[in-house]
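User: quick one, fold this
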Amino acid sequence: MPSYNQLVKAKRLRKLKKKICNVKALRHCPQKKGIVFKIRIVKPKKPNSAQRKIAKVRIFKRHILTYIPGQGHMLKSFSEVLVSGGRANDLPGVRFSLIRGKFDFSYKENFDRVNKKSKYGYKSKALWM
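Assistant:
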């Protein structure tokens, strides 16, 4: 640990660290609107095995890979979606996820959730009763 005199001497020499934004594609915004370019299925990293759905989305003339949460979707090319930061842990290169219930990405899944509050923009039935 530096002493007081060392800190006083080095005050002019110390520089503040620059803050690094890890989600540069969103340009320091919490969410951004994007257009789906392509939808594809990828397999996750090693101990997991599944078929994860991802979408290539265009934001600011830049293409990013986004994770499609939930089960079932009706997304097509040129659908409008809302993108937020939040990576898919077992998919390399996928640092963003889509938000359900906004623009063309509907909240409806293939089945109704009963016992759990939905993370995808749709309130569960248990809250309505």
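User: anything notable?
Assistant: The first strand starts at residue 31 and ends at 42.
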